[in-house]
What does this fold into?
Amino acid sequence: MTGKPPSGKPPASKPPAARPPAGKPPATRPPAEKPPSGKPPRRKRVIGVLETVSIPEWRLYGIRARVDTGALTSSIDVPRAVVVEPGDGRRPYAEITAGEGEEARTVKVLIVGFRTVRNPSGHASRRPIVEAVIELGGRRFRTQINLHRREGMTYRMIIGRRALAGRFLVDVARRRRT
It folds into this structure.
């Protein structure tokens, strides 16, 4: 039998693989483009589902937080939040009581907006949104946080997708970063 298949046509041959010219190394991937800021992209840090967070502006440190990729915004437990709307063209602000017991303090924070947030059981509530610099996973950055009384909840803070985006990868097997 000859090298022809039963159809009578010669077998298709593969074109030879392209080789670099003699003396030149094989081509490598082009370097990653730098973002418009000119800075190289930062690597995403791996964090766990349970983390410790600090809000230095509010002098709150070591807050037990749960990383929740199902939540859009972060949320913090505030025992008391009074929304003050000056009415004279100034932005509204919140006087919040942060911390508990001897560590309780009142902090004034500008409100950047209000958002209707639906809790896991489906109940919707309108919450004030503030911005603060938080420390999470060895990084310090500004993010939006909604103020809510999380009474009876295991974790005083929820870290949502907006805070995580572009900064962190969540390893569900990792429990707490120390």
